[in-house]
């Protein structure tokens, strides 16, 4: 029998030909370029320094008993240069690891760059009252709280297949009603002890967040309006309605409506005494602890419960869910509304940890949350970590504003956004959103 | 459980998809539902499964009338369905897919994955359906995915199992296995409704055959009926099952692929070092089960994706870096495998679709303006020549039947001079009459000296058209054989059996 004319590849079991994917080559080139730029910047920072003496105030604010501690910043600069050089060599040799190891190296290099940058920024002190470095953790936590809640809201919605651009709108509404409820509780509900008034404010934030979520769900799930369009409209609506309502508050009744009682710090025994980080992490408000707990809670909910399995199935393949008796529309409603709870809490943190509501005070942080969702690959824990990183960058800008001469403030305020673009566009790699994200589900009949 | 359907009717607007259908399925019976694509088989089954609500008529289970508000109700009543397009969540494990909808929990809604795995193992032992409960569905072969679908139905205690075109995505060997599984299920008392348009399968497994045409049951037949008899019932007229063609007049190699490799967006190497030649005046058939790299190979030939390694040349000229527009202009004709996605613009009219890749030629435009009269004249001519059944040239293509949509694509590709014709699944979802027509046109194109490359997962089509058959498996061309090769042997090659291996195939 001679049916086989030719067999170009004799066996299916032969080793796979080595083909390098173009995307892989691009990734390596990108990595080399970025690392080289980082290295150049670090070297430049070092060379610019005349007097490497730097002062820090990591233990707390400047007082007589707590003067700035001075140290030689050269070590930090050189370590950073060394670390970056090693990473660059790995990248050039195409040995830069993938997965969590790669991320770890990136984080280490990033911290090194942060250090080298700070050394340059704070070096060459002029006079006795030269600015000293302060602890970045408290500021990071303050901003990251909102971002983490926003990211969790985004993860919940998008895992169910609903794109939530409206987080910013939920934030602003949550901030406003958080303030109103807290103020109202102080003035009009004398039965509530002062400590619990801002907690009542949180309830207001949640209601507002859920309200906006309900609008998102109503238009996108019931009427299949494009989810991105609904989201953008809801952001504009949130800005508009809160500005309008703020304008309606008469000056003499401001106390009653927009003078919130703030959340009080609660020290966690033992933990808050850890030097440097204890006070910042564990001498916080209830809302911050709630954020700590929410991240694992959402993870558990999504990956270990029946409801979570159904949410994820609906976000990936709603028809498959429907054919086994799971109603995709119902599950999506639930996920969007629960997301609204978290987004509302995030919004409330703006007023209940800093003070009165002001127009457009959320300043685009809702969109940063969205970036954290993508960077965290739609995973609650990674998204929360990304949110913390963005919070850190945002705080850096605030901290460095006193060094305006050396570092242009406007450029710094763009930093978190630049980092977002680089991170999301360049290095998150092949992210895969839930397959049905943003697609309306319609029954055939 | 005995299923009886009485006068079931489904209308979509003025269109009657199912017209007063009567059907009885006895317990433990394999009932075959035979019909062409678009005959209304799936509509009927979707009503049985609660996905569609009947306009009229009733469904009786063991004599009791039932109504279903959704698939959940049908499942609860004991009807399970394996859909043509699998209803599996790719990123979930087998166990998660099986448990979805009736999840085992430890109370308070916390998943009990161990119990789910145990259930999968028990069911797979009992019905001899081997699957790994912890494998991710996206990582397992299509045949195994189908087993998962069957397990899903069994896990919800289905007494009646609907299999909608289950063999379309399987290798001949996997089809044999499926037949075995169906017999096993039958032996254990499950009734099966088996939907297909493949006559061979119906005769092999069916206890009773009902034939559906244009939404009506046109008759029932015993499995002993001849294939021609069944085909005639299905189509409504005498059909020719074989294409008549002369021996090929083979010329020089026109399209050459050398060492093509393609990496897909997920980073998997899906085309592995593939080389072949397509010669003038010859049809090269690329056989293989869906998902073995054919799609990516074809896309790389046309420039829709750039090959990550290798060289493609047309009459000696390197075209590996060409985009689709340049490739088309070089004289490559392309009939894509998914016409609604790549072949036409559904909301555009027949007339517009007929010039989708020609509008920029001098014939149909001058400067920025289209020559509308020429386009209209072209449409008129093509509609006549290719017997496209459409109300008018203004009708949107999306509203034509599958066969006529495909004819629009074919007519357009054949309306310019071609050096190479690449046709992927040229008759998928096309009625038997149109299949005949399209096959004849392809052979005619071959006889004009065009090099033709056909990709098909249907062995019938491969045999009907090819002068040489290349078999793709796991991203490679594992063998190139002559069309005299027996089906069994080709089936083995498609399943990855190595020529010259223990199965006794000889290597020349």
TrEMBL record, chain A:
GO terms for molecular function: transmembrane transporter activity. GO terms for cellular component: plasma membrane. It comes from the Bacteria. Its main location: membrane. The chain crosses the membrane at residues 29-47, 75-96, 103-123, 143-162, 174-196, 202-221, 228-249, 281-303, 335-357, 363-393, 414-433. Pfam families: BPD_transp_2. InterPro entries: ABC_transp_permease. It is found in: Cell membrane. The keyword Membrane applies. Keywords: Cell membrane, Membrane, Transmembrane, Transmembrane helix. It is a multi-pass membrane protein. This is ABC transporter permease. It comes from Nocardioides silvaticus.
UniProtKB/TrEMBL annotation, chain B:
InterPro entries: AAA+_ATPase, ABC_carbohydrate_import_ATPase, ABC_transporter-like_ATP-bd, ABC_transporter-like_CS, P-loop_NTPase. It is found in: Cell membrane. Keywords: ATP-binding, Cell membrane, Membrane, Nucleotide-binding, Repeat, Translocase, Transport. Residues 3-239, 255-499 form the ABC transporter domain. GO terms for cellular component: plasma membrane. The keyword Repeat applies. Its main location: membrane. PANTHER family: CARBOHYDRATE TRANSPORT ATP-BINDING PROTEIN MG119-RELATED, GUANOSINE IMPORT ATP-BINDING PROTEIN NUPO. This is Heme ABC transporter ATP-binding protein. It comes from Nocardioides silvaticus.
């Amino acid at each position: 029998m001679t049916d086989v004319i030719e067999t170009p590849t004799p066996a299916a079991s032969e080793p796979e030909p080595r083909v390098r994917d173009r995307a892989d080559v691009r990734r390596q080139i990108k990595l080399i370029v970025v690392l080289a730029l980082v290295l150049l910047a670090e070297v430049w920072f070092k060379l610019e320094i005349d007097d490497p003496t730097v002062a820090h105030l990591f233990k707390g604010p400047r007082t007589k008993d707590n003067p700035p501690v001075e140290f030689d910043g050269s070590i930090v600069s050189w370590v950073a240069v060394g670390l970056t050089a090693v990473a660059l060599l790995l990248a050039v040799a195409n040995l830069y690891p993938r997965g969590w190891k790669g991320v770890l190296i990136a984080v280490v290099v990033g911290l090194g760059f942060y250090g080298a940058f700070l050394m340059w920024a704070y070096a060459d002190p002029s006079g006795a009252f030269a600015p000293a470095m302060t602890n970045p953790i408290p500021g990071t936590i303050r901003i990251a709280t909102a971002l983490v809640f926003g990211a969790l809201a985004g993860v919940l919605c998008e895992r169910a297949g609903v794109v939530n651009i409206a987080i910013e709108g939920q934030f602003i509404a949550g901030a406003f009603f958080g303030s109103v409820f807290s103020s109202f509780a102080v003035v009009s509900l004398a039965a509530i002890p002062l400590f619990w008034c801002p907690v009542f404010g949180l309830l207001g934030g949640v209601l507002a967040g859920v309200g906006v979520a309900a609008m998102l769900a109503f238009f996108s799930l019931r009427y299949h309006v494009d989810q991105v369009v609904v989201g953008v409209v809801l952001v504009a609506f949130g800005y508009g309605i809160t500005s309008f309502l703020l304008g309606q508050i008469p000056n003499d009744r401001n106390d009653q409506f927009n003078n919130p009682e703030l959340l009080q710090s609660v020290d966690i025994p033992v933990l808050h005494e850890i030097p440097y980080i204890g006070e910042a992490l564990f001498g916080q408000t209830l809302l911050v602890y709630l954020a700590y707990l929410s991240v694992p809670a959402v993870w558990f909910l999504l990956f270990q419960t029946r409801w979570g399995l159904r949410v994820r199935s609906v976000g990936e393949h709603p028809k498959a869910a429907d054919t086994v008796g799971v109603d995709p529309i119902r599950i999506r409603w639930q996920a969007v509304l629960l997301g609204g709870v978290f987004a509302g809490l995030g919004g409330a943190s703006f007023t209940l940890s800093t003070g009165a509501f002001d127009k457009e005070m959320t300043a685009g942080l809702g969109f940063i949350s969205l970036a954290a969702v993508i960077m965290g690959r739609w995973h609650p824990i990674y998204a929360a970590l990304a949110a913390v990183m963005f919070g850190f960058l945002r705080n850096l800008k605030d901290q460095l504003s006193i060094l305006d001469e050396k570092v242009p403030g406007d450029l710094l305020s763009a930093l978190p956004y630049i980092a977002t673009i680089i991170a999301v566009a360049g290095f998150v790699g092949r992210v895969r959103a839930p397959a049905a994200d943003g697609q309306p589900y319609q029954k055939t009949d | 459980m005995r299923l009886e359907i009485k006068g079931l009717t489904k209308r979509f607007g003025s269109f009657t998809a199912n017209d007063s259908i009567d059907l009885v399925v006895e317990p433990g019976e394999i009932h075959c539902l035979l019909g062409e694509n678009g005959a209304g088989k799936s509509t009927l089954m979707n009503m049985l499964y609660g996905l569609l609500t009947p306009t009229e008529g009733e469904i009786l289970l063991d004599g009791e009338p039932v109504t279903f508000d959704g698939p959940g109700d049908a499942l609860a009543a004991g009807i399970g369905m394996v859909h043509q397009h699998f209803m599996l969540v790719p990123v979930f494990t087998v166990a998660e897919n099986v448990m979805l909808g009736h999840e085992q929990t430890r109370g308070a809604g916390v998943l009990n994955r161990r119990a789910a795995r145990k259930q999968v193992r028990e069911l797979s032992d009992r019905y001899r359906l081997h699957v790994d409960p912890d494998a991710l569905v996206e990582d397992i072969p299509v045949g195994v995915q189908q087993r998962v679908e069957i397990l899903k139905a069994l896990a919800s205690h289905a007494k009646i199992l609907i299999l909608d075109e289950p063999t379309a995505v399987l290798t001949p060997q996997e089809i044999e296995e499926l037949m075995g599984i169906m017999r096993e299920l039958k032996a254990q008392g499950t009734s099966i409704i088996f939907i297909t348009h493949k006559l061979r399968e119906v005769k092999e497994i069916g206890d009773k055959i009902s034939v559906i045409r244009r939404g009506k049951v046109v008759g029932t037949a015993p499995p002993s009926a001849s294939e021609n008899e069944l085909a005639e019932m299905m189509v409504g007229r005498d059909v020719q099952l074989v294409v008549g063609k002369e021996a090929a007049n083979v010329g020089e190699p026109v399209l050459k692929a050398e060492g093509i490799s393609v990496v897909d967006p997920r980073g998997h190497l899906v085309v592995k070092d593939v080389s072949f030649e397509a010669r003038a005046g010859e049809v090269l058939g690329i056989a293989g089960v869906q998902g073995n790299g054919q799609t990516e190979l074809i896309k790389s030939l046309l420039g829709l994706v750039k090959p990550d390694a290798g060289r493609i040349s047309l009459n000696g000229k390197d075209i590996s870096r060409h985009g689709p527009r340049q490739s088309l202009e070089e004289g490559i004709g392309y009939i894509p495998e998914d016409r609604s996605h790549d072949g036409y613009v559904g909301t555009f009219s027949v007339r517009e679709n007929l010039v989708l890749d020609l509008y920029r030629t001098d014939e149909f435009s001058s400067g920025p303006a289209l020559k509308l009269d020429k386009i209209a004249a072209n449409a008129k001519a093509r509609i006549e020549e290719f017997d496209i059944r459409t109300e008018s040239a203004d009708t949107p293509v999306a509203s034509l039947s599958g066969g006529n949509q495909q004819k629009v694509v074919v007519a357009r590709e054949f309306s310019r001079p071609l050096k190479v014709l690449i046709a992927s699944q040229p008759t998928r979802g096309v009625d038997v009459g149109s299949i005949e027509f399209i096959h004849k046109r392809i052979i005619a194109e071959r006889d004009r000296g065009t090099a033709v490359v056909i990709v098909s997962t249907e062995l019938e089509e491969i045999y009907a058209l090819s002068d040489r058959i290349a078999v793709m498996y796991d991203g490679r061309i594992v063998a190139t054989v002559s069309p005299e090769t027996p089906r069994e042997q080709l089936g083995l090659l498609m399943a990855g059996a190595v020529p010259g291996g223990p199965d006794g195939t000889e290597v020349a």
